[in-house]
Amino acid sequence: MKKTYCITGHAALLIVLLNLVPTVWCGGRAGRCFASAAQDADVQEERGGDPAGDHTLLAGEAGEASFLGQTYKIKERDRGHMASITLGGSFLLPEQGETPGLPIAALYLRHFWEGSRTRNIISIFVNELEYAKSFGNLELIGHFQNYTLPVDQKEVVNSEEIEPTSVRWGTLTGSLGPGLRFPVSPHQVDNDIRLQLLGRVGYLYAERTHDTGPTQVVPPNTLLYGVRLRARYDGMRRNLLELPHQGFAAGWDLDYMHRDNWRDLEPVPSGSNHRNYFQASGHLVGAGGIPGLSERDRVLISLYGGKTNGNSADRFNAFLINGGPFPSEQEDLARVHYTGIIYDDVRATSYATASLGYRRELAFFLYLSAVGSYLWADRATVRGLDQVVFRDQSAAAVTASLDSGFFWNSALYLAYTWESEFIRGGKSGSGVILTWNKLF
Q1: Residue 389: its H or E element
Q2: Residue 352: partners with Cβ closer than 8 Å, 6 or more residues away
Q3: Tens of pLDDT along 206-254?
Q4: Cα(74)–Cα(46) distance, integer angstroms
Q5: What one-character DSSP code corresponds to residue 267?
């Protein structure tokens, strides 16, 4: 008699670096154990698959898969309700400043109910919470995020921390406003078009430390007021491990902010305190087949760009760029993707990055990927003793990774990355990251 088994896939891979790691990074992975049944014939015909199951299993589908002579039934499961935790760490060579390695931890919650939805990333010092109440296609959205690390933040040049640039600071921001949401093909829980207009109120605090340089100008604590126009499209289908499989996603953000209490951050006043600023950013992420190869071979692309108007950017409002795996989870797609080892957020006033990758399905629960990235940015660096300025810099990175289902309804992510000079501020380096993602 043929044996059958139920196999679970990825839990959500949403990573936040705590304590020593001033960043939040989220790369979504959502695992599923799906209802036993044969694959739908129409789906098989559309994808050119084999009714016996010799095709890539997609998130949310029921079906069968074979491995080492055994047959496994995959059960259907609701992708609209998910709770997971991610634990792990990374090792850096050479060290980034004085940091040889980094802990990783995050709690991820996503739920879609009749008439409402929520998505939350919780990690104590860096959190992002969103709740939306729907009235047909109209929504009322509430959003909160904080970046409040209890550590001194310093700029890094040639992999060395520049002590006189040390400042302890953080932000808390709440947003509220209307939006429109329309489901789109292929009509999974994460496939939709969204347009949102959010009013924003926040608070920025900053203080000197015992290392802060004598000519370093620290801004006053201040209230923040602004508005965000945000658009999202997600027409992507994910595989069993919630990795991008087919389709594309795109979006953009337009932000205008006013800092109520501000001063010129130059040691010699320039006559413009950059109290108001405007920023625009956008992204395009896609995955698809490769002509002449099977469905198990995928090509991956991503394009990201951002711009701050004029000379109004500083270290307290600059874009944050970080390394990480190829994005997948719906909201995580807007995170700037530059495939480098995870570490400190690197600040940039403007940026453009492109990534191209290849992924091979080794087994229905195991994927091998290789991704290369190129990045140009006006990167934060240091002038003189303690002045943080922004200069053009370009860099490249390459990552090889494995995504695998694991025991206890969990998953593993293992990656090796080499990066030329961007993350360490002028010195190339490499690193290894390992995470364990448990779905509840």
Answers
A1: strand 387-406
A2: 304, 305, 306, 375, 376, 377
A3: 999 999 998 888 999 999 999 999 999 999 999 988 999 999 999 999 9
A4: 20
A5: S
CB 425 within 8 A of CB 159: yes
> Which two three-digit tokens encode residue 267?
């040691």
Q: How far apart are CA 92 and CA 388, in angstroms?
A: 25
Q: What CA–CA distance (Å, rounded) separates 240 from 366?
A: 10
Looking at 144-218, list the stretches that DSSP marks H as alpha helix, in order from N- to C-terminal side.
none
Cα 77 to Cα 63: distance, rounded to the nearest angstrom: 12
- Concatenating the DSSP letter of every residue in 296-333 gives TEEEEEEEEEEEE-TT---TTT-EEE---SPP-STGGG
**What's the pTM value of the predicted model, to 2 decimals?**
0.86
Compute, in degrees rounded to 10, the torsion defined by CA atoms 190, 174, 219, 160. -30
- Residues making up the chain, counted from first to last: 440
Please write down the HEC assignment for all residues of 200-213: EEEEEEEEECCCCC
Structure tokens at 351: 């940026």
pLDDT digits (tens, 9 = 90+) for 296-319: 999 999 999 999 997 778 899 999
Phi-psi region of 60 (alpha: psi -120 to 50; beta: other; left: phi over 0): left
Token code pair at residue 292? 């002449």
Residue 57: count other Cβ atoms within 10 Å of its Cβ.
26
Q: Which bin fits 114, alpha (ψ -120 to 50), beta or left (φ > 0)?
A: beta
User: Which residues have CB under 8 Å from 51's CB, separation 6+?
Assistant: 38, 39, 41, 44
- CB neighbours of residue 114 within 10 Å: 6
Which two tokens mark 365?
A: 């629960």
Residues in Cβ contact with 76 at an 8 Å cutoff, skipping those fewer than 6 apart: 34, 35, 37, 60, 61, 62
Q: Is 334 exposed, middle or buried (0-12, 13-18, 19+ CB in 10 A)?
A: buried
d(CA 331, CA 227): 19
Please count the other Cβ atoms lying within 10 Å of the Cβ belonging to residue 77: 20
